[in-house]
Every structure is written in C-alpha cells, then in structure tokens.
Specification:
The protein has 8 helices and 7 strands; from the N terminus they run H-E-H-E-H-E-E-H-H-E-H-E-H-E-H. A 7-stranded mixed beta sheet has the order 3-2-1-4-5-6-7. Helix 7 (179-187) links the parallel strand 6 and strand 7. Helix 5 (115-132) runs parallel beside helix 6 (153-161). It has a single domain (18-207), classed as Rossmann fold, CATH 3.40.50. The protein is globular, with a radius of gyration of 17 Å. The protein has helices at 2-14, 39-49, 62-66, 105-110, 115-132, 153-161, 179-187, 200-207; strands spanning 29-34, 55-57, 82-84, 96-101, 135-140, 167-171, 190-194. By secondary structure, the chain is an alpha/beta fold.
Length: 210
C-alpha cells in the first residue's frame, strides 16, 4: 500500500492538472510573443527540445500570419527575430497559433513597439485566427514576476489573450491567484497547469498528440 501511494505521489508531480477536454492541436504552428518578454525564448527552447516543428516571429504581423507557412519570407531585422521549421509547403494555412504571454517594456522598446502597437497587433492576429478557425494556444510560464496589479502591462496582455484561447497552459507560479484557472472555467477553455517549465517537456508533446 505504501509503495502504491509513493508511486502515485511521484506520478502526480508530472501530471498536468487540471485539464478540461481532450483537444489535440494540429500542425502547422506559428508562434509569437504577446508583450515581447523572454518567455517566448523559453517556449522556443522547449519546442526545439521536444522536436516540435513551427514557424516563429516575435513581432508577427497580420500579413505574415495570413501568408501561412514561410511567413511570406519574413526576415530578421532590428528587434525582429524569425524561425522557419514547419515541414508543410509554403503558404499552407496555420492550424495552431501559439502565443507566449509576458510583457517587457524593454523588449517592446527593442522591437520598436509601443504598448498600443503591441495590443493592436495581438488583437488583429487573434481576430484573424478566430475567423479562420485556427486554434489558439496561450502559454504563461514566466512565473510570479510576469504578473502584476490590474491594469499593469502583464495583466493587459493576459486581458487581450487569455479569454480567446482554445487552450491555456501555465506554470503554477504564474497562476498563484488562480486567475488563469478562473478565466478557463468562465470561458470553457481547456486548461493545463504544470509545476514548472521543465514539466512542459512532457506537456507540449501531449498537446499535439506526439
């Protein structure tokens, strides 16, 4: 009995809870940042570690999103970073839109974006995704440091992204006030909470049925 209990306790560390629904996300994937914080780099690292194929632009524009795989040949530039790893043909419409939620005034400044610019960019991308039936995966994994008082920059990014997601993924320290849990319940959004970003090495493949 003790052995069983111990095994269950160990397993619980790695289980993503709670989960509402059993949606499996599809390829191709495009990723961007909502707020230009370092969380997007963590997401990229995790995606690479698990072999996830994706296209990426930290300041993805609506035209690039609409262009599908290859992002119409988007190029790196001052404050702009891209990556192209999708295996689908160029121009294939994306089926999953991954948004890393986390705001940094320094990051937005380096990208030449004001807060209004970033808010309007993300809103336009979400609107397009909804129109085309592209699933939205929101990830908030920056911890307590990426939270704040109502109306603060990080909370603004949560305001404009979270309620529109099809799936929200968070680390426990990003959800101490259970704000993401409550949004997911209120909006009937599938929800995954893990103890740390390290646990996403198992959670991310599961989200895509890998």
């Amino acid at each position: 009995m003790k052995k069983v209990s111990l095994l269950m306790a160990i397993a619980a560390i790695f289980i993503v809870l709670p989960v509402f629904g059993t949606m499996v996300l599809e390829f191709p994937i495009v990723m961007t940042s909502a707020g230009q914080s370092d969380e997007i780099n963590t997401v990229i690292y995790l995606a690479d570690e698990v072999g996830l194929k994706y296209d990426y632009c930290d300041i993805l524009s609506l035209d690039e999103f609409k262009a599908g795989v290859g992002l119409a040949g988007a190029k790196d530039g001052p404050g702009k970073h891209t990556g192209f790893f999708s295996v689908e043909a160029k121009g294939t419409q994306f089926k999953t839109f991954l948004i890393a939620i986390g705001a940094s005034l320094k990051g937005m400044g380096a990208s030449g974006l004001s807060v209004d610019d970033e808010v309007n960019r993300i809103k336009a991308l979400i609107t397009y995704a909804k129109e085309k039936g592209i699933k939205i995966l929101g990830m908030a994994i920056g911890g307590e440091i990426r939270r704040g008082l109502p109306g603060s920059l990080n909370e603004i990014m949560i305001d404009i992204v979270a309620e529109h997601c099809d799936i929200i993924v968070v680390t426990s320290d990003s959800n101490l006030d259970k704000r993401f849990t409550n949004i997911a319940k209120e909006k009937n959004i599938e929800f995954v909470e893990v103890e740390s970003a390290f646990d996403l090495l198992e959670a991310i493949p599961a989200l895509f049925g890998l």
